[in-house]
Amino acid sequence: NSGLAGKAGKELGDDHRTYESEYGEPYETEDNEAADLSNLLADQMTPSYGKSAIKVDNVCTRRRVGDHMCPELFILGVQKGGTSSLWVFLVTSTELKIQTGLNLYEEYAMPKEMHFFDKQSFFAEGVDSYAEHFEVRDEESQLSLDATPAYSRYARVPPLMVSTINMERSRFIITVRDPVHRGYSWYTHILQRLIRMPRFDQAYQVFDYKFSLMSKYMPKLINECVQRWMKYPKLVFQHCWHLTDNVRRTGVLVEETGLETIYPWIPSSIFTDGLYGYMMLHWFRFIRPNLFCIIFYEKLVESFADEIQHIGPCLKPFGREILESDAARGLPLVNHIKCKTCKNFERLVDEELSAVGRKLNEELFTRSNDVFRELMRDHFNRTGMADWEKAYTL
Ligand SMILES: Nc1ncnc2c1ncn2[C@@H]1O[C@H](COP(=O)(O)OS(=O)(=O)O)[C@@H](OP(=O)(O)O)[C@H]1O
């Protein structure tokens, strides 16, 4: 593993204290992250954003026939944004010929998700190991996809990607969804799949496992951070996302249960992962906007054939396009967790979720959505999008 990927991994490993991540493995803290990220990758940030001089020399940038193939198409997020269905659509298309990974690092991950950039232990294995998870390139035109929706929610991922992959060729897809519904879906996901892990159970127990109580307490705390950094919108995400020390220090007494928060980043991620405006500003510091394709979950569900065309610019450089006949297949329904057997699940009917959502918008999401709407207008020429709050006005 030559080049900057190794250097970045080593320096991060050497310089940062390690804690256990939410999945029980070490990750770096985000102490002085602004300084760390910008110093570490200052050289690489400019070329990736400017006129694309590739400085990294590794298996991803050499891309030789006969070598394992690094992905050049990514679904970065967001978690619970319909990414599994989108992945199924893309990799089952006989027209598009997009290849998925040969095998995964993690036995229990969704088949689409490599988690190379968000899990420190995988990244530490190096870029050659990443490529080896994909097929050997038989011809120049082959294209592989890494669809790991967790990437978008880790502030450290974009600089690591820039220091590793072939930035000249790569394209990045993100689907977004009403942050309230996304949050509720993520809460449901945790109750069904992750609650068996003691830290998830303890974190949720504090709130009597209720989404409504998490929505009452966590956004206030997150918003204090957001307000503090609002003067520098590009820095909000890296200072306020779910794994910052700021969030770790956050203690709050939940009056209804009489318990203090434990592992506060677990419930806080339900909300911070939905700060799309600040999240995208962070990504755009490292990767220029025209390499992204951003699509809307609600539009995918309502009018798939139209919305899916918005990933066209991310396929075109690879000589691919979505044909009408392909789009007519529609969005498959994958990964719908009913939580029928979830213990302690707070099932909120529409009206209840609307009431919770109204407050979440007031307190947290509207400002971030405003930023996001501006980005959609300025960089993607899409206006009238992301008006999720409308559904919550009385
Ligand atoms: N075709 C179609 N129509 C409507 N909704 C759909 C469809 N396909 C996926 N979904 C919903 O997308 C949610 C899962 O998103 P992800 O696959 O991105 O989740 S994950 O982060 O990979 O776990 C999950 O949302 P919730 O059901 O609200 O939890 C899925 O039901």
Automatic annotation (TrEMBL):
Q: Which keywords, in A-to-Z order, does the entry hold? A: Signal, Transferase
Q: Which SUPFAM superfamilies match?
A: P-loop containing nucleoside triphosphate hydrolases
What is the name of the protein in this document? Sulfotransferase domain-containing protein
Is this entry keyworded Signal?
yes
In its UniProt record, a GO molecular function of this protein is: sulfotransferase activity
Which InterPro entries does the record cross-reference, listed alphabetically? NST/OST, P-loop_NTPase
Q: Which residues bind 3'-phosphoadenylyl sulfate?
A: R177, S185
- List, from the UniProt record, the residues annotated as the active site of this protein: K80
Organism, as annotated:
Rhodosorus marinus
